[in-house]
Amino acid sequence: MAEQSTASTYILTFAQEILALNTMLGNYSNAMVLIKSKIVPDEKKTEEQQIKQVLEKMSPEEKEQLSTIAQQTRHYSIQAFLKIKVLKDQPKFKIIDIDFENLKKQYQQIITIQYPSFDVIQDFVTELNKVYVSSVFTEMLEKSQEYYAQLATMSGGGNQ
Prior knowledge:
By secondary structure, this protein is mainly α.
């Protein structure tokens, strides 16, 4: 029973982290749109250099907001990556079609670059969403939810 509880918690937490990453991707996108709207085009500079120039001119409040979004994105990316790293070797997960090596490269960029490319984050989140929508994961998620519903009923939580 303890093993089932641990597995169920693991699956439910992983699902929540993927959903949180979807939200963070939207937040990161909004922040990058704002930054890119402030870029003064300069053919001599790369987009990365131009973004850096905008970041230098941002107010402390804007920098703090962007930093918080980037930190939260990294946090959920780390949590989800650690779980997928373990789950990928489980027999049931071997049939899910993800490119783990590419996911690993994206993850490295997300955790090592202060403000990673939106495209890298989007690709990382998209790959994780493949797991989330797979029939194998959906089945495991449903079983985890059923397990917790049974526990609630057994402990009297379902009668209140």
